[in-house]
Write a structure and sequence with these properties.
about 350 residues, alpha/beta, 6-stranded mixed sheet, 3-stranded antiparallel sheet
Length: about 350
Amino acid sequence: MDHPPPEGGGAVITLASPWLLLVLPLPLLSRALLPPHREPRPSLHVPFLDRLSRVTGRQPGEGASVPVGTLGRRWVMPFVWLCLVVALARPQWIEPPVSKALPTRDLMIAVDLSGSMETKDFTDASGKSADRLTAVKQVLDGFLSKREGDRVGLLFFGTAPFVQAPFTTDLKVCRQLLDEAQVRMAGPQTAFGDAIGLAITLFERSTMKQKVLIVLTDGNDTASRIPPAKAAEIAKGKGIVIHTVSVGDPRAAGEEALDVPTLQAVAAESGGIYSAASDRRQLEQIYEKLDALETLSTETVSRRPRRDVHHWFIAAAFVLSGIYQTVLVLMRTLRFRPARAPITEGREVPLVS
């Protein structure tokens, strides 16, 4: 069973199965408890042993010789055993902690794409005249860029609502999809209540504690099958807070008219706020207010990556054992290499041992 990483911020080495170190004294216990290895063999071959025994009056007896290990073997073999046992205990390199911020809130933004959003009564970032949707996209883009730590979804509605982006932490994708939005791509009318209903369906799959819906519209509800007030009541029961933002001139009439009482009632029913934006500056102030209102309680998780390094110890044991055996072979070769007699003046000079 893996043990939890140690406290602290530095990199350390730990053992996944430290209890396996209990086998370290096994060779010593074996030497102390088990009988020594015996291999009977004649130590000396004498053809006339019987005659020699009669002459000397002594009988041959039994003896034992105990080979003594080399100094290198006494140090190398225990170290190799130590490396193998440590490798068996699975040493792991615990790296410094890596922290990651977890999303704690689902934020759905519903944007009205009805025909009235092409009315040019706003200004863009350069101060030039722009339609309502262009101004909304520019200001909303800045708002989305600050949503780090949120899961953001994008919903468009006109005659019918549809999901443009499900909840995601990829804010870059949401901003790109918002930039590609066009007036009337969801139909010319305004289905405000149905947009809230679709958002409720999406929030039902959410496990976040905070659920926020921001609805941005410039007209009254002309195409919904469910009244906005009823949709807001259902949202409240689901724990969804709805902030409503009206865009455009409140004095407009017809399809471009604003149903301010309905927008206010929806926000109040769910515990949200209603804001009116008749120009770009007011729209920016609304999002600044939402930034301050919807403070994010970040939640972070920290983990320390682990890397198994048992192969280091196996390699050390293999290399050291190989070097030791190679040295032994070379020493034996040099020790038992036959000496050749030097040749002097055409005749062989015998070696004197």
